Amino acid sequence: MGTFTLYMQYIVNGITLGAIYSLIALGYTMVYGILKFINFAHGDVLMVGAFVGLLVYEALAGAAEPGMWTIFCFFIAMVISMAFCAFLGMFIERVAYKPLRNANRLAPLLSAIGVSFILSNGAAWIFGTTSRRFPYPFENEPIHIGGVTITPHQILVIIVSVAMMVLLAFFVNKTRMGKAMRATSLDQPTSMLMGINVNRVISLTFAIGSALAAVGGMLAAFDFRVYPSMGTMTGLKAFVAAVIGGIGNIQGAMIGGVLLGILEAVGAPLLHIPNGMRDTVAFAVLIIILLVKPDGILGKNEREKV
Amino acid sequence: MLNFFQLILIYAGVYAIMAIGQNCITGYTGMLSLCHAGFFCVGSYATAIICKVLGFSFWLSLPVAAIISGVIGFLIGVPTLRLKGDYLCIATLGLGEIIRNVATNLNPVGISQIPRVELFGYVFMSRNKWAFIILIWAFVLIFYLLFQRLLHSRIGRAMTAVREDEVAAASNGIDVTKYKIVSFVLGAAVGGIAGCFQTAYTLTVSPASYTFMVSVMVLCTVVLGGMGNGKAVILGAVIIQFISYFPQLTGLTNVIPAQAKQMIFGLILVVMMVWRPQGILGRDKFRYGCEKKRLFGKKKEGAV
Fold it and tell me: How many secondary structure helices (H) and strands (E) does chain B include?
Protein backbone atom coordinates (compact mmCIF):
# COMPACT_ATOMS: atom_id res chain seq x y z
CA MET A 1 0.00 0.00 0.00
CA GLY A 2 1.52 3.29 -1.08
CA THR A 3 1.81 6.28 1.19
CA PHE A 4 -0.89 8.10 -0.75
CA THR A 5 -3.48 5.36 -0.36
CA LEU A 6 -2.49 4.97 3.26
CA TYR A 7 -3.21 8.63 3.90
CA MET A 8 -6.41 8.43 1.86
CA GLN A 9 -7.41 5.65 4.24
CA TYR A 10 -6.63 7.85 7.24
CA ILE A 11 -8.69 10.65 5.75
CA VAL A 12 -11.66 8.36 5.16
CA ASN A 13 -11.43 7.16 8.76
CA GLY A 14 -11.06 10.76 9.88
CA ILE A 15 -14.17 11.88 8.03
CA THR A 16 -16.29 9.18 9.68
CA LEU A 17 -14.91 10.06 13.08
CA GLY A 18 -15.38 13.74 12.31
CA ALA A 19 -19.00 13.28 11.27
CA ILE A 20 -19.70 11.94 14.76
CA TYR A 21 -17.86 14.85 16.37
CA SER A 22 -19.90 17.24 14.24
CA LEU A 23 -23.20 15.82 15.44
CA ILE A 24 -22.14 16.20 19.06
CA ALA A 25 -20.53 19.58 18.52
CA LEU A 26 -23.85 20.90 17.19
CA GLY A 27 -25.38 20.46 20.64
CA TYR A 28 -22.58 22.40 22.31
CA THR A 29 -22.63 25.16 19.79
CA MET A 30 -26.42 25.62 19.77
CA VAL A 31 -26.58 25.88 23.55
CA TYR A 32 -23.58 28.18 23.62
CA GLY A 33 -25.12 30.34 20.92
CA ILE A 34 -28.22 30.96 23.00
CA LEU A 35 -27.18 30.72 26.65
CA LYS A 36 -23.45 31.48 26.36
CA PHE A 37 -22.43 28.62 28.56
CA ILE A 38 -20.74 25.29 28.01
CA ASN A 39 -23.10 22.44 28.66
CA PHE A 40 -20.76 19.98 30.34
CA ALA A 41 -23.47 17.38 30.66
CA HIS A 42 -23.74 17.12 26.87
CA GLY A 43 -21.08 14.40 26.69
CA ASP A 44 -22.98 12.32 29.20
CA VAL A 45 -26.25 12.77 27.36
CA LEU A 46 -24.41 11.16 24.45
CA MET A 47 -23.52 8.24 26.67
CA VAL A 48 -27.13 7.88 27.81
CA GLY A 49 -28.19 7.95 24.16
CA ALA A 50 -25.77 5.15 23.33
CA PHE A 51 -27.01 3.03 26.25
CA VAL A 52 -30.69 3.56 25.45
CA GLY A 53 -30.02 2.82 21.79
CA LEU A 54 -28.13 -0.34 22.67
CA LEU A 55 -30.80 -1.60 25.08
CA VAL A 56 -33.67 -0.94 22.66
CA TYR A 57 -31.75 -2.50 19.79
CA GLU A 58 -30.92 -5.61 21.78
CA ALA A 59 -34.51 -5.93 22.97
CA LEU A 60 -35.87 -5.62 19.43
CA ALA A 61 -33.33 -7.46 17.34
CA GLY A 62 -32.29 -10.06 19.91
CA ALA A 63 -30.07 -12.62 18.26
CA ALA A 64 -31.54 -12.06 14.78
CA GLU A 65 -29.29 -12.49 11.77
CA PRO A 66 -28.09 -9.18 10.32
CA GLY A 67 -30.45 -8.14 7.55
CA MET A 68 -33.24 -5.75 6.71
CA TRP A 69 -34.99 -6.41 10.03
CA THR A 70 -31.94 -5.51 12.13
CA ILE A 71 -31.31 -2.36 10.14
CA PHE A 72 -34.95 -1.43 10.72
CA CYS A 73 -34.46 -2.16 14.44
CA PHE A 74 -31.40 0.06 14.47
CA PHE A 75 -33.37 3.01 13.16
CA ILE A 76 -36.24 2.36 15.57
CA ALA A 77 -33.69 2.28 18.41
CA MET A 78 -32.23 5.52 17.12
CA VAL A 79 -35.61 7.27 17.11
CA ILE A 80 -36.44 6.06 20.62
CA SER A 81 -33.01 7.05 21.88
CA MET A 82 -33.37 10.49 20.30
CA ALA A 83 -36.76 11.01 21.92
CA PHE A 84 -35.47 9.85 25.29
CA CYS A 85 -32.45 12.16 25.17
CA ALA A 86 -34.54 15.07 23.96
CA PHE A 87 -36.70 14.75 27.06
CA LEU A 88 -33.65 14.21 29.22
CA GLY A 89 -32.06 17.35 27.81
CA MET A 90 -35.18 19.42 28.45
CA PHE A 91 -35.49 17.98 31.95
CA ILE A 92 -31.87 18.82 32.78
CA GLU A 93 -32.35 22.33 31.48
CA ARG A 94 -35.49 22.84 33.53
CA VAL A 95 -34.06 21.48 36.77
CA ALA A 96 -30.41 22.45 36.74
CA TYR A 97 -29.95 25.44 34.41
CA LYS A 98 -33.18 27.39 34.30
CA PRO A 99 -33.08 28.53 37.95
CA LEU A 100 -29.57 29.82 37.30
CA ARG A 101 -30.26 31.84 34.20
CA ASN A 102 -29.73 35.13 36.00
CA ALA A 103 -27.07 33.91 38.41
CA ASN A 104 -23.40 34.64 37.91
CA ARG A 105 -21.44 33.08 35.08
CA LEU A 106 -19.93 30.31 37.19
CA ALA A 107 -23.19 28.87 38.57
CA PRO A 108 -24.57 27.08 35.49
CA LEU A 109 -21.12 25.68 34.69
CA LEU A 110 -20.79 24.13 38.14
CA SER A 111 -24.33 22.86 37.96
CA ALA A 112 -23.58 21.30 34.56
CA ILE A 113 -20.55 19.50 35.97
CA GLY A 114 -22.77 18.18 38.74
CA VAL A 115 -25.31 16.90 36.22
CA SER A 116 -22.56 15.29 34.18
CA PHE A 117 -21.26 13.52 37.27
CA ILE A 118 -24.72 12.30 38.27
CA LEU A 119 -25.38 10.92 34.78
CA SER A 120 -22.07 9.14 34.29
CA ASN A 121 -22.02 7.63 37.77
CA GLY A 122 -25.69 6.78 37.65
CA ALA A 123 -25.01 4.86 34.45
CA ALA A 124 -22.04 3.14 36.07
CA TRP A 125 -24.26 2.14 38.94
CA ILE A 126 -27.06 0.78 36.76
CA PHE A 127 -25.07 -0.79 33.92
CA GLY A 128 -21.70 -1.50 35.55
CA THR A 129 -18.40 -0.17 34.31
CA THR A 130 -17.58 -2.86 31.75
CA SER A 131 -17.74 -1.71 28.17
CA ARG A 132 -20.23 -3.30 25.79
CA ARG A 133 -19.99 -3.81 22.07
CA PHE A 134 -22.71 -2.39 19.86
CA PRO A 135 -23.55 -5.20 17.43
CA TYR A 136 -23.48 -4.28 13.76
CA PRO A 137 -26.98 -4.37 12.33
CA PHE A 138 -25.58 -5.61 8.99
CA GLU A 139 -22.73 -7.73 7.67
CA ASN A 140 -19.72 -5.49 8.17
CA GLU A 141 -17.89 -6.71 5.07
CA PRO A 142 -15.35 -4.05 4.02
CA ILE A 143 -15.63 -2.56 0.55
CA HIS A 144 -12.39 -1.85 -1.33
CA ILE A 145 -12.18 1.19 -3.58
CA GLY A 146 -8.72 1.40 -5.04
CA GLY A 147 -6.50 0.70 -2.05
CA VAL A 148 -8.89 2.34 0.37
CA THR A 149 -11.11 0.21 2.57
CA ILE A 150 -14.52 1.47 3.60
CA THR A 151 -16.72 -0.51 5.94
CA PRO A 152 -20.51 -0.35 5.69
CA HIS A 153 -20.68 1.08 9.18
CA GLN A 154 -18.60 4.04 8.06
CA ILE A 155 -21.03 4.59 5.21
CA LEU A 156 -23.92 4.40 7.66
CA VAL A 157 -22.24 6.95 9.93
CA ILE A 158 -21.74 9.38 7.06
CA ILE A 159 -25.26 8.95 5.63
CA VAL A 160 -26.96 9.37 9.00
CA SER A 161 -24.85 12.38 9.98
CA VAL A 162 -25.37 14.14 6.68
CA ALA A 163 -29.11 13.49 6.87
CA MET A 164 -29.28 14.87 10.40
CA MET A 165 -27.30 17.97 9.49
CA VAL A 166 -29.44 18.66 6.43
CA LEU A 167 -32.56 18.33 8.57
CA LEU A 168 -31.12 20.66 11.16
CA ALA A 169 -30.05 23.22 8.57
CA PHE A 170 -33.55 23.11 7.08
CA PHE A 171 -35.12 23.53 10.50
CA VAL A 172 -32.93 26.43 11.56
CA ASN A 173 -33.00 28.33 8.29
CA LYS A 174 -36.46 27.66 6.88
CA THR A 175 -38.95 27.19 9.70
CA ARG A 176 -40.61 29.70 12.00
CA MET A 177 -39.20 28.09 15.12
CA GLY A 178 -35.74 28.06 13.59
CA LYS A 179 -36.04 31.76 12.93
CA ALA A 180 -37.04 32.27 16.56
CA MET A 181 -33.99 30.29 17.57
CA ARG A 182 -31.66 32.42 15.49
CA ALA A 183 -33.26 35.58 16.84
CA THR A 184 -32.86 34.41 20.44
CA SER A 185 -29.23 33.63 19.85
CA LEU A 186 -28.65 37.12 18.41
CA ASP A 187 -30.40 39.11 21.12
CA GLN A 188 -32.44 37.52 23.86
CA PRO A 189 -34.18 40.55 25.39
CA THR A 190 -35.21 41.95 22.02
CA SER A 191 -36.57 38.64 20.78
CA MET A 192 -38.55 38.42 23.99
CA LEU A 193 -40.03 41.84 23.21
CA MET A 194 -40.88 40.63 19.72
CA GLY A 195 -43.12 38.00 21.24
CA ILE A 196 -40.82 35.00 21.02
CA ASN A 197 -41.28 32.53 23.85
CA VAL A 198 -37.64 32.38 24.82
CA ASN A 199 -38.15 29.62 27.37
CA ARG A 200 -39.66 27.43 24.71
CA VAL A 201 -36.81 28.19 22.33
CA ILE A 202 -34.26 27.25 24.96
CA SER A 203 -36.08 24.02 25.78
CA LEU A 204 -36.23 23.18 22.10
CA THR A 205 -32.53 23.93 21.68
CA PHE A 206 -31.70 21.48 24.44
CA ALA A 207 -34.08 18.90 22.97
CA ILE A 208 -32.53 19.12 19.49
CA GLY A 209 -28.98 19.20 20.76
CA SER A 210 -29.55 16.19 22.99
CA ALA A 211 -31.31 14.24 20.24
CA LEU A 212 -28.32 14.85 17.95
CA ALA A 213 -26.03 13.76 20.76
CA ALA A 214 -28.03 10.53 21.04
CA VAL A 215 -27.44 9.85 17.34
CA GLY A 216 -23.78 10.72 17.76
CA GLY A 217 -23.55 8.42 20.77
CA MET A 218 -25.07 5.48 18.90
CA LEU A 219 -22.79 6.00 15.91
CA ALA A 220 -19.75 6.44 18.14
CA ALA A 221 -20.68 3.21 19.91
CA PHE A 222 -19.54 1.17 16.86
CA ASP A 223 -16.02 2.51 17.20
CA PHE A 224 -15.65 3.21 20.88
CA ARG A 225 -17.95 0.61 22.50
CA VAL A 226 -20.49 1.67 25.13
CA TYR A 227 -19.40 2.45 28.68
CA PRO A 228 -20.42 5.00 31.32
CA SER A 229 -17.47 7.35 30.90
CA MET A 230 -17.48 7.30 27.08
CA GLY A 231 -19.00 10.77 27.05
CA THR A 232 -16.13 12.59 28.74
CA MET A 233 -13.44 12.38 26.08
CA THR A 234 -15.81 12.27 23.11
CA GLY A 235 -17.67 15.25 24.49
CA LEU A 236 -14.44 17.15 25.09
CA LYS A 237 -13.30 16.54 21.52
CA ALA A 238 -16.66 17.57 20.16
CA PHE A 239 -16.32 20.79 22.09
CA VAL A 240 -12.90 21.32 20.54
CA ALA A 241 -14.58 20.78 17.17
CA ALA A 242 -17.15 23.43 18.03
CA VAL A 243 -14.36 25.87 18.97
CA ILE A 244 -12.48 25.14 15.74
CA GLY A 245 -15.53 25.99 13.70
CA GLY A 246 -16.36 29.04 15.81
CA ILE A 247 -18.48 28.38 18.86
CA GLY A 248 -22.07 29.46 18.46
CA ASN A 249 -21.93 28.89 14.72
CA ILE A 250 -23.90 25.90 13.39
CA GLN A 251 -22.09 25.49 10.06
CA GLY A 252 -18.85 25.95 11.94
CA ALA A 253 -19.58 22.98 14.18
CA MET A 254 -20.18 20.76 11.16
CA ILE A 255 -16.95 21.80 9.46
CA GLY A 256 -14.97 21.83 12.70
CA GLY A 257 -16.00 18.28 13.53
CA VAL A 258 -14.90 16.84 10.20
CA LEU A 259 -11.68 18.85 10.33
CA LEU A 260 -10.86 17.63 13.81
CA GLY A 261 -11.61 14.04 12.82
CA ILE A 262 -9.20 14.29 9.87
CA LEU A 263 -6.54 16.07 11.94
CA GLU A 264 -6.75 13.41 14.58
CA ALA A 265 -6.65 10.48 12.16
CA VAL A 266 -3.82 11.94 10.05
CA GLY A 267 -1.93 13.79 12.77
CA ALA A 268 -1.13 10.81 14.97
CA PRO A 269 0.64 8.71 12.29
CA LEU A 270 2.18 11.81 10.71
CA LEU A 271 3.80 12.92 13.96
CA HIS A 272 4.50 9.34 15.11
CA ILE A 273 2.41 9.74 18.25
CA PRO A 274 1.62 6.42 19.92
CA ASN A 275 -2.03 5.50 19.65
CA GLY A 276 -2.56 5.84 23.40
CA MET A 277 -1.72 9.54 23.23
CA ARG A 278 -3.98 10.34 20.28
CA ASP A 279 -6.24 12.40 22.49
CA THR A 280 -3.38 14.84 22.93
CA VAL A 281 -3.72 15.89 19.28
CA ALA A 282 -7.23 17.24 19.74
CA PHE A 283 -6.10 19.12 22.79
CA ALA A 284 -3.07 20.62 21.06
CA VAL A 285 -5.37 21.74 18.25
CA LEU A 286 -7.57 23.50 20.78
CA ILE A 287 -4.64 25.41 22.26
CA ILE A 288 -3.37 26.42 18.83
CA ILE A 289 -6.82 27.60 17.73
CA LEU A 290 -7.23 29.60 20.93
CA LEU A 291 -3.84 31.21 20.37
CA VAL A 292 -4.19 31.96 16.67
CA LYS A 293 -7.86 32.46 15.94
CA PRO A 294 -10.04 32.19 19.03
CA ASP A 295 -13.22 32.80 17.06
CA GLY A 296 -12.71 29.69 15.01
CA ILE A 297 -12.78 29.32 11.25
CA LEU A 298 -16.25 30.70 10.66
CA GLY A 299 -16.45 32.91 13.73
CA LYS A 300 -17.08 36.58 13.36
CA ASN A 301 -13.99 38.59 13.99
CA GLU A 302 -15.18 40.31 17.14
CA ARG A 303 -12.74 39.18 19.72
CA GLU A 304 -14.25 39.45 23.17
CA LYS A 305 -11.14 40.62 24.88
CA VAL A 306 -11.28 42.49 28.12
CA MET B 1 -13.35 3.32 63.88
CA LEU B 2 -10.76 5.70 65.26
CA ASN B 3 -8.57 4.56 62.42
CA PHE B 4 -11.10 5.79 59.88
CA PHE B 5 -11.48 9.10 61.64
CA GLN B 6 -7.72 9.54 61.48
CA LEU B 7 -7.77 8.62 57.81
CA ILE B 8 -10.56 11.13 57.17
CA LEU B 9 -8.55 13.81 58.95
CA ILE B 10 -5.44 13.06 56.87
CA TYR B 11 -7.29 13.12 53.56
CA ALA B 12 -9.37 16.08 54.64
CA GLY B 13 -6.07 17.89 55.23
CA VAL B 14 -4.74 16.97 51.78
CA TYR B 15 -8.00 18.01 50.14
CA ALA B 16 -8.13 21.17 52.24
CA ILE B 17 -4.75 22.20 50.81
CA MET B 18 -5.98 21.45 47.29
CA ALA B 19 -9.22 23.26 47.97
CA ILE B 20 -7.33 26.33 49.18
CA GLY B 21 -5.64 26.36 45.77
CA GLN B 22 -8.91 25.83 43.96
CA ASN B 23 -10.49 28.51 46.09
CA CYS B 24 -7.84 30.98 44.97
CA ILE B 25 -8.81 30.26 41.34
CA THR B 26 -12.56 29.79 41.65
CA GLY B 27 -13.44 31.71 44.76
CA TYR B 28 -11.17 34.74 44.57
CA THR B 29 -10.96 35.30 40.84
CA GLY B 30 -14.10 33.52 39.68
CA MET B 31 -12.54 31.19 37.13
CA LEU B 32 -13.46 27.56 36.71
CA SER B 33 -10.48 25.23 36.62
CA LEU B 34 -11.01 21.51 36.32
CA CYS B 35 -7.54 20.05 36.53
CA HIS B 36 -6.59 19.97 40.15
CA ALA B 37 -6.26 16.22 39.73
CA GLY B 38 -3.56 17.01 37.16
CA PHE B 39 -1.59 19.30 39.49
CA PHE B 40 -2.12 16.78 42.28
CA CYS B 41 -0.61 14.14 40.00
CA VAL B 42 2.34 16.37 39.12
CA GLY B 43 3.03 17.00 42.81
CA SER B 44 2.79 13.33 43.71
CA TYR B 45 5.17 12.35 40.95
CA ALA B 46 7.56 15.16 41.88
CA THR B 47 7.83 13.78 45.42
CA ALA B 48 8.07 10.20 44.21
CA ILE B 49 10.84 10.95 41.72
CA ILE B 50 12.80 13.32 43.95
CA CYS B 51 12.71 11.02 46.99
CA LYS B 52 12.95 7.63 45.34
CA VAL B 53 14.90 8.09 42.12
CA LEU B 54 17.08 11.11 42.91
CA GLY B 55 17.36 10.40 46.62
CA PHE B 56 16.78 13.94 47.87
CA SER B 57 14.73 14.95 50.89
CA PHE B 58 10.94 15.24 50.84
CA TRP B 59 11.17 18.90 51.77
CA LEU B 60 12.96 19.70 48.53
CA SER B 61 10.08 18.20 46.58
CA LEU B 62 7.61 20.77 47.94
CA PRO B 63 9.06 23.79 46.11
CA VAL B 64 9.86 21.68 43.05
CA ALA B 65 6.28 20.41 42.83
CA ALA B 66 4.96 23.94 43.31
CA ILE B 67 7.21 25.29 40.57
CA ILE B 68 6.43 22.53 38.05
CA SER B 69 2.67 22.79 38.65
CA GLY B 70 2.90 26.55 38.49
CA VAL B 71 4.75 26.46 35.17
CA ILE B 72 2.20 24.05 33.71
CA GLY B 73 -0.55 26.31 34.97
CA PHE B 74 1.18 29.30 33.39
CA LEU B 75 1.56 27.56 30.03
CA ILE B 76 -2.10 26.58 29.93
CA GLY B 77 -3.26 29.86 31.40
CA VAL B 78 -1.59 32.23 28.97
CA PRO B 79 -3.49 31.15 25.84
CA THR B 80 -6.83 30.56 27.55
CA LEU B 81 -7.05 33.38 30.08
CA ARG B 82 -6.50 36.12 27.52
CA LEU B 83 -9.95 35.31 26.21
CA LYS B 84 -13.24 36.07 27.77
CA GLY B 85 -15.61 33.22 28.40
CA ASP B 86 -15.12 29.78 29.73
CA TYR B 87 -12.33 28.42 27.61
CA LEU B 88 -10.27 27.86 30.74
CA CYS B 89 -12.54 25.16 32.10
CA ILE B 90 -12.55 23.14 28.91
CA ALA B 91 -8.80 23.58 28.44
CA THR B 92 -8.16 22.51 32.03
CA LEU B 93 -10.54 19.59 31.68
CA GLY B 94 -8.40 18.51 28.74
CA LEU B 95 -5.17 19.22 30.62
CA GLY B 96 -6.23 17.03 33.54
CA GLU B 97 -6.92 14.14 31.18
CA ILE B 98 -3.68 14.74 29.28
CA ILE B 99 -1.53 14.72 32.43
CA ARG B 100 -3.09 11.45 33.52
CA ASN B 101 -2.78 10.11 29.98
CA VAL B 102 0.92 10.98 29.83
CA ALA B 103 1.55 9.55 33.30
CA THR B 104 -0.26 6.33 32.38
CA ASN B 105 1.74 5.99 29.19
CA LEU B 106 5.14 6.76 30.71
CA ASN B 107 4.66 4.93 33.98
CA PRO B 108 1.72 2.52 33.88
CA VAL B 109 2.44 0.70 37.15
CA GLY B 110 3.27 3.73 39.27
CA ILE B 111 6.06 4.10 41.80
CA SER B 112 6.03 2.39 45.16
CA GLN B 113 8.22 2.11 48.25
CA ILE B 114 8.99 5.79 48.37
CA PRO B 115 11.24 6.76 51.33
CA ARG B 116 9.48 8.13 54.39
CA VAL B 117 9.41 11.77 55.36
CA GLU B 118 11.94 12.82 57.93
CA LEU B 119 11.95 15.98 60.03
CA PHE B 120 14.80 16.73 62.45
CA GLY B 121 15.52 13.00 62.73
CA TYR B 122 11.87 12.05 63.34
CA VAL B 123 10.59 9.57 60.75
CA PHE B 124 6.91 9.78 59.84
CA MET B 125 5.69 6.17 59.88
CA SER B 126 2.42 5.41 58.11
CA ARG B 127 1.03 3.64 61.16
CA ASN B 128 1.60 6.68 63.35
CA LYS B 129 -1.31 8.64 61.94
CA TRP B 130 -1.39 11.41 64.53
CA ALA B 131 2.04 12.60 63.42
CA PHE B 132 0.75 12.87 59.86
CA ILE B 133 -2.38 14.63 60.98
CA ILE B 134 -0.27 17.24 62.78
CA LEU B 135 2.11 17.58 59.83
CA ILE B 136 -0.62 18.01 57.22
CA TRP B 137 -2.87 20.26 59.30
CA ALA B 138 0.11 22.45 60.15
CA PHE B 139 0.51 23.04 56.44
CA VAL B 140 -3.23 23.57 56.04
CA LEU B 141 -2.93 26.30 58.65
CA ILE B 142 0.10 27.83 56.92
CA PHE B 143 -1.63 27.91 53.54
CA TYR B 144 -4.85 29.17 55.08
CA LEU B 145 -3.01 32.10 56.68
CA LEU B 146 -0.98 32.77 53.54
CA PHE B 147 -4.02 32.87 51.30
CA GLN B 148 -5.98 34.88 53.82
CA ARG B 149 -3.17 37.45 53.73
CA LEU B 150 -3.19 37.24 49.95
CA LEU B 151 -6.92 37.94 49.81
CA HIS B 152 -6.47 41.11 51.84
CA SER B 153 -3.44 42.26 49.92
CA ARG B 154 -3.34 44.41 46.81
CA ILE B 155 -3.24 41.29 44.61
CA GLY B 156 -6.20 39.73 46.40
CA ARG B 157 -8.26 42.88 46.07
CA ALA B 158 -7.47 43.00 42.38
CA MET B 159 -8.55 39.36 42.01
CA THR B 160 -11.83 40.04 43.79
CA ALA B 161 -12.42 43.00 41.54
CA VAL B 162 -11.86 40.80 38.49
CA ARG B 163 -14.36 38.30 39.85
CA GLU B 164 -17.02 40.88 40.46
CA ASP B 165 -16.76 42.71 37.17
CA GLU B 166 -14.01 42.36 34.61
CA VAL B 167 -14.89 45.49 32.70
CA ALA B 168 -15.09 47.64 35.80
CA ALA B 169 -11.82 46.19 37.06
CA ALA B 170 -10.09 46.90 33.75
CA SER B 171 -11.38 50.45 33.70
CA ASN B 172 -9.90 50.95 37.14
CA GLY B 173 -6.49 50.10 35.82
CA ILE B 174 -6.34 46.45 36.87
CA ASP B 175 -4.61 44.22 34.36
CA VAL B 176 -7.31 41.53 34.24
CA THR B 177 -5.30 38.92 32.36
CA LYS B 178 -2.30 39.34 34.62
CA TYR B 179 -4.25 38.79 37.81
CA LYS B 180 -6.14 35.87 36.31
CA ILE B 181 -2.84 34.22 35.44
CA VAL B 182 -1.35 35.01 38.87
CA SER B 183 -4.37 33.50 40.57
CA PHE B 184 -4.33 30.43 38.38
CA VAL B 185 -0.60 29.82 38.81
CA LEU B 186 -0.81 30.19 42.59
CA GLY B 187 -3.75 27.80 42.76
CA ALA B 188 -1.92 25.31 40.58
CA ALA B 189 1.22 25.49 42.73
CA VAL B 190 -0.77 24.76 45.89
CA GLY B 191 -2.46 21.85 44.14
CA GLY B 192 0.98 20.44 43.39
CA ILE B 193 2.04 20.74 47.02
CA ALA B 194 -1.07 18.83 48.12
CA GLY B 195 0.13 16.00 45.88
CA CYS B 196 3.43 15.86 47.80
CA PHE B 197 1.60 15.25 51.07
CA GLN B 198 -0.57 12.58 49.52
CA THR B 199 2.58 10.72 48.42
CA ALA B 200 4.24 11.29 51.78
CA TYR B 201 1.40 9.46 53.45
CA THR B 202 0.65 6.64 51.00
CA LEU B 203 4.28 6.17 49.85
CA THR B 204 3.00 4.97 46.49
CA VAL B 205 2.00 6.75 43.30
CA SER B 206 -0.27 5.26 40.71
CA PRO B 207 -1.47 7.15 37.65
CA ALA B 208 -4.93 5.59 37.85
CA SER B 209 -5.82 7.53 40.98
CA TYR B 210 -5.74 11.03 39.45
CA THR B 211 -9.03 10.90 37.63
CA PHE B 212 -11.45 13.67 36.80
CA MET B 213 -13.33 12.65 39.91
CA VAL B 214 -10.56 14.13 42.09
CA SER B 215 -10.95 17.48 40.35
CA VAL B 216 -14.70 17.38 40.84
CA MET B 217 -14.24 16.46 44.51
CA VAL B 218 -12.02 19.49 45.04
CA LEU B 219 -14.48 21.71 43.22
CA CYS B 220 -17.30 20.26 45.29
CA THR B 221 -15.32 20.99 48.46
CA VAL B 222 -15.03 24.65 47.53
CA VAL B 223 -18.63 24.98 46.42
CA LEU B 224 -20.00 23.19 49.48
CA GLY B 225 -18.05 25.29 51.95
CA GLY B 226 -18.48 28.59 50.19
CA MET B 227 -16.50 30.04 47.32
CA GLY B 228 -14.02 32.65 48.42
CA ASN B 229 -14.17 31.80 52.10
CA GLY B 230 -11.02 30.16 53.46
CA LYS B 231 -12.51 28.65 56.61
CA ALA B 232 -15.55 27.36 54.79
CA VAL B 233 -13.39 25.57 52.27
CA ILE B 234 -11.57 23.68 55.01
CA LEU B 235 -14.91 22.75 56.58
CA GLY B 236 -16.01 21.60 53.13
CA ALA B 237 -12.96 19.34 52.86
CA VAL B 238 -13.83 17.61 56.14
CA ILE B 239 -17.47 17.11 55.11
CA ILE B 240 -16.55 15.80 51.67
CA GLN B 241 -14.06 13.32 53.11
CA PHE B 242 -16.62 12.24 55.69
CA ILE B 243 -19.12 11.56 52.90
CA SER B 244 -16.57 9.70 50.87
CA TYR B 245 -15.52 7.44 53.78
CA PHE B 246 -19.04 7.07 55.14
CA PRO B 247 -19.55 3.52 53.77
CA GLN B 248 -16.31 2.29 55.37
CA LEU B 249 -17.03 4.16 58.58
CA THR B 250 -20.42 2.55 59.05
CA GLY B 251 -19.43 -0.79 57.58
CA LEU B 252 -22.09 -0.48 54.87
CA THR B 253 -19.72 -1.01 51.93
CA ASN B 254 -21.90 -3.86 50.68
CA VAL B 255 -25.11 -1.89 50.84
CA ILE B 256 -23.98 1.43 49.39
CA PRO B 257 -22.80 1.22 45.78
CA ALA B 258 -19.37 2.62 44.97
CA GLN B 259 -20.90 5.23 42.68
CA ALA B 260 -23.16 6.62 45.38
CA LYS B 261 -20.62 9.11 46.67
CA GLN B 262 -19.85 10.43 43.21
CA MET B 263 -23.56 10.88 42.59
CA ILE B 264 -23.83 12.71 45.90
CA PHE B 265 -20.99 15.02 44.83
CA GLY B 266 -22.80 15.75 41.58
CA LEU B 267 -26.00 16.37 43.48
CA ILE B 268 -24.19 18.68 45.91
CA LEU B 269 -22.97 20.80 43.00
CA VAL B 270 -26.43 21.15 41.47
CA VAL B 271 -28.32 21.62 44.73
CA MET B 272 -25.84 24.13 46.13
CA MET B 273 -25.89 26.15 42.92
CA VAL B 274 -29.68 26.25 42.77
CA TRP B 275 -30.43 26.88 46.44
CA ARG B 276 -27.37 28.22 48.17
CA PRO B 277 -24.69 29.38 45.73
CA GLN B 278 -22.74 31.09 48.50
CA GLY B 279 -22.03 27.74 50.23
CA ILE B 280 -22.73 26.59 53.77
CA LEU B 281 -20.86 29.38 55.49
CA GLY B 282 -21.29 31.90 52.75
CA ARG B 283 -18.72 34.18 51.28
CA ASP B 284 -16.33 35.97 53.56
CA LYS B 285 -17.44 39.55 53.12
CA PHE B 286 -14.72 41.88 52.08
CA ARG B 287 -13.88 43.58 55.32
CA TYR B 288 -10.77 45.55 54.58
CA GLY B 289 -10.34 48.01 57.40
CA CYS B 290 -13.98 48.26 58.38
CA GLU B 291 -14.42 45.34 60.75
CA LYS B 292 -13.06 47.15 63.79
CA LYS B 293 -15.02 50.26 63.03
CA ARG B 294 -18.24 48.29 62.97
CA LEU B 295 -17.38 46.63 66.26
CA PHE B 296 -16.71 50.00 67.86
CA GLY B 297 -19.87 51.35 66.36
CA LYS B 298 -21.89 48.64 68.00
CA LYS B 299 -20.27 49.29 71.36
CA LYS B 300 -21.08 52.95 71.19
CA GLU B 301 -24.64 52.21 70.34
CA GLY B 302 -24.87 49.96 73.37
CA ALA B 303 -23.32 52.62 75.60
CA VAL B 304 -25.70 55.29 74.44
Answer: 12, 2
Query: pLDDT band at A276, cuts 50/70/90?
Result: low
- Residues on chain B touching A44 (C-beta within 8 angstroms): none
B170 in contact with A, Cβ within 8 Å: yes
Question: Of B82, B97, B266, which has the smallest distance from its Cβ to A121's Cβ?
Answer: B266
In this prediction, residue B300 carries a pLDDT of: 44
Going by the DSSP 8-state scheme, the letter that residue A141 receives in this structure is -
CA distances to A21, A51, A54, A68, A71 from A136, in Å: 20, 15, 11, 12, 9
Q: What DSSP string runs through B141-185?
A: HHHHHHHHHHHTSHHHHHHHHHHH-HHHHHHTT--HHHHHHHHHH
B220: nearest Cα among B271, B260, B269, B284? B269
Instruction: Supply the DSSP string of A10-48, one letter for each residue.
Output: HHHHHHHHHHHHHHHHHHHHHHHHHH-S--TTHHHHHHH
pLDDT band at residue A300 using 50, 70 and 90 as cut-offs: low
Name which of A38, A277, A294 is nearest B83 (Cβ-Cβ).
A294
User: Which of B14, B3, B1 has the alpha carbon at shortest distance from B191?
Assistant: B14
Q: Which domains does chain B have, with CATH numbers?
A: 2-303 (1.10.3470)
pLDDT digits (tens, 9 = 90+) for A80-97: 999 999 999 999 999 988
Domain ranges of chain A: 3-140+153-292
Could B267 and A276 be called an inter-chain contact, meaning their C-beta atoms sit closer than 8 Å? no
Rama region for A145: left / alpha / beta (φ>0; ψ in -120 to 50; rest): beta
Top CATH class of A3-140+153-292 equals mainly alpha
Across the interface, whether the CB atoms of B273 and A114 are under 8 A apart is answered yes
Of the pLDDT bands very low, low, confident and very high (cuts 50, 70, 90), residue B269 is confident
List the 154-173 stretch of A: residues with Cβ below 8 A of B.
none
Whether residue A38 lies within 8 A of chain B, CB to CB, comes out as yes
